[in-house]
Design goal:
Among the domains are: 135 residues, 3-Layer(aba) Sandwich (Rossmann fold); 106 residues, Rossmann fold (3-Layer(aba) Sandwich). A hairpin with a 2-residue loop joins strand 3 and strand 4. It is built from eight helices and twelve strands. The protein is elongated and about 70 Å long. It has a six-stranded mixed β-sheet, sandwiched between helices. Strands 8-7-9-10 form a four-stranded parallel β-sheet, sandwiched between helices. The longest helix has 14 residues. 22% of the residues lie in helices and 13% in strands. It comes from Mesocricetus auratus (Golden hamster). This is Haloacid dehalogenase-like hydrolase domain-containing 5 isoform X2.
Amino acid sequence: MAALSGLGALRAGCRVWRFPARLSAGLRGCWLQRGYVVGRTESPPTFGLLFDIDGVLVRGHRVIPAALEAFSKMLNSHGQLRVPVVFVTNAGNILQHSKAQELSGLLGCKVDPDQVILSHSPMKLFLQYHNKRMLVSGQGPLLENARALGFQNVVTVDELRLTFPELDMVDLERRPKKNTCPRNDFSAVEGVLLLGEPVRWETSLQLIMDVLLSNGNPGAGLVAAPYPHLPVLASNMDLLWMAEAKMPSDNPVSDVFGANLFNQYLQTAKRGEKEPGTGGQQKSRPSTIQSCASILVCTGIHSCQDSAPEGPTSGGPELPFHGHRDFSFSPELLEASHVVRDVNEAVQLVFQQEGWA
């Protein structure tokens, strides 16, 4: 999880992680406790599920019927989840608790905010940037999300545009009609925070470039382009997903890449090796998770009639790799552990393999 895209690339559908057997007894007093039915001899689960949302559980604002079937299997008689469940999404234009409320209403079960991982959730670990003055770009509740992540000193693109109106030159209607006085009371920007796709791309791109080229002082003249430039924290590089539109629009390279990359990280951590691309953030605690298996469903971008997702190849034109630059492309990371029709079949498969009714 060194990259800043939630748990990496999503769209894998359903992912399984396994707890060490010795841990299952200790979980009885934790949040798994609420999933037990009094009087049953059901053993506590030693596995959990990570669910992608778009194209797996919902298409836009409509629940996929298979998702309701799947969750009916995971609820006890009190409507509580019997297994650990976490929802992962590349969405970043919503507050964590709002996404939890939305999922609760759609799936008919209680989803807590800490069960939702948004694309920018890992930014909570980047403590060294939390007190720096950051230019934040995206849409939705930008300031609320930035502050919830720990960033205390942020300025939005709109605020920057109003301070330096002469920089926003693409939209002719918004160009200043008369000369403005230069500002010398603007505190320098120390980094850029990308929490999702903006609405006005041209304004965001222009002002972000101005900030980078001026080393955080967009009102100053450019002498030479600074290198290295100010840090840019990008929470989500995947701009493709499956919603109501019929045209498939997901990045095929990100389908199962994230789940398999996470599993590779777990195995590397077991061997005590250093994982590349983890510099600059808070050192994470040792994981109690042993492995992560990827299950690809056919209700999103991927169709069961399609061949396996393709990535960059040595022959022919090379497809773009949209993963984090710190991770080199490995073809085996695109191979899902299992391919099933929908999320209901995925849950049934997991329960069968885990010997769990």
